[in-house]
Amino acid sequence: MGRNNEKNIKKHNDKLHKAQAKAKQAEMLRKEKLKEIVKKFNENKNDENK
Length: 50
Fold this sequence. Notes:
This protein is mainly α. The protein is about 90% helix and about 0% strand. The protein contains one helix and no strands.
């Protein structure tokens, strides 16, 4: 039996996809936080100008 059997390939792909999903989720979270920060900054800037 070689290393590249179905079971090992599936295990590897599952692990890879889980890591990719985690990275994608973290990136989305960072973008959401950045949007919030920018929104608050713009609100504060508008309040100071009035």
